[in-house]
UniProtKB/TrEMBL annotation:
It holds the Pfam family Acyltransferase. Keywords: Membrane, Transmembrane, Transmembrane helix. One of its GO terms (molecular function) is glycerol-3-phosphate O-acyltransferase activity. GO terms for biological process: phospholipid biosynthetic process; regulation of triglyceride metabolic process. The lineage of its organism: Eukaryota, Fungi, Dikarya, Ascomycota, Saccharomycotina. InterPro entries: GPAT/DAPAT, Plipid/glycerol_acylTrfase. Residues 1-10 have a biased composition (Polar residues). This is Phospholipid/glycerol acyltransferase domain-containing protein. Residues 613-628 have a biased composition (Low complexity). SUPFAM superfamilies: Glycerol-3-phosphate (1)-acyltransferase (SSF69593). Residues 70-280 form the Phospholipid/glycerol acyltransferase domain. Residues 1-27, 599-628 are annotated as: Disordered.
Length: 683
């Protein structure tokens, strides 16, 4: 898979008049956004505008302007917001509706279900969602000799279980597919339980849960129908959402959807577009997000024929290709500590322009992870790792962040003056935002309490989540969508009654009650939004006060030591990266230069990308034809088209970019800007 620059040099694929006519026919038959869908997108835009400080879509020229396509998103790190952001990206880039393959349990929820049905979601049942307690208890017949044979006491396996159904343990300790129902008291599973908790539970005798066999044939038929109409289908092949630092194994359902559809109707090629969901603190209010769309994988009639002849190897090859493609648009780490080291190294690298553009941040993170993985046993890398960990520990001890270390460069008189200025600004902003904050506080309280409860529930019912942070952001939004209108309605109703009864404002009190109600509603919304924006700037100021105190207080010497250590680490990190970078990436220097120009005129580059989109959407793709099967993957069995019901789909286990608020450290930025100009002259 080549880079975007390489793609721009390719000759357009739409070289003949007949091919252009095919595209025009595809455009005519593909689904168009409905009024209901547009309303949903407008609502999603408002929600994401409020929750996120900045949202950026990159690589949107890779989204097909016409024809059938599958958008594959990963990692699934924000339960319900992932879908909303992806749909907004397609709406902005190509004005095409996106139909997500979604868990049936989500469609049964009050709010999420209604919104999902409005968007045309395709429901799919997951076996783990159908688990129900069974009578009696189970244990191993003999774990050492046959860990797949379970025996029951007081069980009715012949009545409650079926082949290819699911048997699970309490507290989501594990589950396994049923291979054979031997008798009412004996059952054989396809794979043994591996975790120590699950094995210990079964050895001591445990209650269990069972789920029937799930037939996903109708789901595949619905997806095929949508693709044959020229539509766009979205799916997260990891299954449920999670908060891990690495991708979960992709399930074969997404590969079957593409290959099965092109095998049934090879008239139009199907493009599978990887979409990386990159969040910066996804569970926090006013965080940032970057959606990156990668090079499409094109499935042609030839791939459909290969799938009919050898489904297993063809699906394995596509799944391997898709996994590699997802890694090019996401930032994945083996563990949390590695992620912290990589992010610290990226901040310490002496990048020629600051602040570093979001796109460059993601690209640097990916490249640093690859380089770190390859050279992690190098003595220089090992020394850097220890130094960065010690540096992070000192920052935590001081209670400041890396970007605040620069405060130690300024003299005490100026620091003191800046401290007074910011305390005064904070007092003014707190006063201005207080009315709206008090009015809206029930929403914040309800969102925090309910999302925390949902987090605990999700963590208890999952074997893949670490802290279940992936559900926090979505539930904060859902709670706010319900509580905020109810709160505004209550306030407006009370205000209308008081104004009419006591004539507090005579001019307004004489108006029609409905007019008064609407006026109060508008004032309340304006007040809370004003408090919202003022409070955001005030919070930035509040966060900057602590390092100012540190620069004046008893920790001044320690802060200066950290500053010296940061300068040393910056030189060391930059030197190691510049030395090893070209060995890992031959285009290392070109990427740095490209990032500089991107930072100098990011908006201009976005306009250029948009201009290129029409000619590039059809040509920036990679075919499956060149992929050779690398052997079996996570696929248990892939049968012909008539056996699609047995295929796993899920695991059984904004329309604009907004600028962040004004930086409260402008006095530092002036020096940084001067430094950047000098470096740019040298380049």
């Amino acid at each position: 898979m080549g880079s975007n620059d390489a793609q721009t040099e390719q000759k357009p694929l739409l070289a003949t008049e007949s091919e252009e006519k095919d595209v025009n026919r595809s455009k005519k038959r593909q689904p168009k956004p409905t009024i209901v869908y547009d309303f949903l997108m407008w609502l999603s835009l408002i929600v994401t505008d409020i929750f996120f400080r900045e949202v950026k879509f990159t690589g949107t020229f890779n989204i097909p302007v016409s024809g059938p396509a599958i958008i594959v998103i990963a990692p699934h790190a924000n339960q319900f917001l992932d879908g909303a952001l992806t749909m907004l990206a397609l709406k902005k880039a190509v004005n095409r509706p996106l139909h997500f393959v979604e868990a049936a349990t989500s469609l049964k929820r009050q709010i999420v279900g209604k919104l999902s049905r409005m968007s045309g979601a395709i429901p799919v049942e997951r076996p783990q969602d159908l688990l129900r307690p069974g009578p009696g208890t189970i244990t191993f017949s003999n774990y050492e000799t046959d860990p797949c044979l379970l025996v029951g006491t007081g069980t009715q396996f012949t009545k409650d279980c079926e082949v290819k159904g699911l048997i699970g343990l309490p507290h989501s300790a594990g589950s396994s597919k049923i291979q054979e129902v031997v008798s009412d008291t004996e059952i054989r599973i396809s794979k043994p339980f591996k975790t120590g908790i699950a094995v210990d539970m079964i050895k001591s005798g445990t209650p269990y849960k069972v789920a029937p066999k799930v037939d996903n044939g109708h789901v595949f038929n619905a997806v095929f129908a949508q693709l044959h109409r020229g539509g766009v289908v979205g799916i997260s092949p990891e299954g449920g959402s999670h908060d891990r630092t690495d991708l979960l194994p992709l399930k074969p359902g997404v590969a079957i959807m593409g290959l099965g559809a092109v095998a049934e109707d090879p008239t139009y090629p199907i493009k599978i577009v990887p979409c990386g969901m990159n969040y910066f603190h996804p569970h926090k209010f006013r965080s940032r997000a970057v959606l990156e769309f990668g090079t499409p994988i094109v499935l042609t009639a030839e791939d459909g024929a290969k799938y009919r002849e050898n489904p297993r190897d063809t699906v394995s090859a596509l799944l391997k290709t898709l996994t590699d493609a997802m890694k090019t648009v996401t930032v994945t780490c083996p563990d949390y500590e590695t992620l912290m080291i990589i992010q610290a190294a990226r901040r310490l690298y002496d990048f020629p322009i600051k602040p570093v553009p979001l796109g460059a941040v993601l690209d640097m993170n990916r490249r640093l992870i690859i380089g770190y993985t390859r050279y992690q046993d190098d003595p220089r890398i090992m020394h850097l790792k220890d130094s960065v960990l010690r540096y992070n520990a000192k920052l935590e001890q001081l209670g400041i962040r890396d970007h605040q270390v620069e405060i130690a460069r300024v003299g005490k008189p100026r620091v003191f003056f800046r401290l007074l200025q910011r305390v005064a600004s904070l007092a003014i902003m707190a006063t201005l935002s207080l009315p709206g904050t008090l009015l809206f506080s029930p929403v914040f309280i309800a969102a925090k309490v309910i999302s925390a409860k949902k987090q605990r529930d999700a963590l208890a019912n999952s074997t893949v989540k670490i802290k279940a942070n992936d559900v926090l952001g979505s539930w904060k939004v859902l709670v706010a969508m319900v509580v905020a209108p109810l709160l505004y309605f209550t306030y407006s109703l009370l205000g209308t009654i008081l104004l009419r009864r006591y004539e507090i404002v005579p001019v307004v009190s004489k108006l029609h009650p409905l007019v008064i109600f609407c006026l109060i509603w508008a004032v309340l919304v304006s007040t809370t939004f004003a408090a919202f924006w003022i409070g955001e700037v005030g919070m930035d100021i509040f966060k900057s006060i602590r390092p100012l105190f540190s620069a004046l207080g008893p920790n001044q010497n320690m802060l200066q030591e950290v500053q010296e250590e940061r300068r040393r680490l910056t030189m060391e990190v930059t030197g190691v990266c510049n030395d090893l970078g070209p060995k890992v990436f031959p285009d290392f220097n070109r990427v740095i230069q490209k990032s500089i120009h991107k930072g100098l005129d990011e908006e201009e580059e976005e306009r250029e990308d948009t201009a290129k989109s029409v000619s590039m959407r059809s040509q920036s793709s990679s075919s499956l034809n060149s992929i050779v099967s690398t052997g079996p993957s996570s696929i248990a069995s892939v049968g012909p088209l008539e056996n699609l019901g047995d295929i796993q789909i899920f695991s059984d286990t904004p329309a604009r970019t907004r600028r962040p608020s004004a930086d409260v450290s402008n006095w530092i930025e002036q020096a940084v800007i001067s430094k950047n100009r000098e470096k740019l002259k040298e380049l």
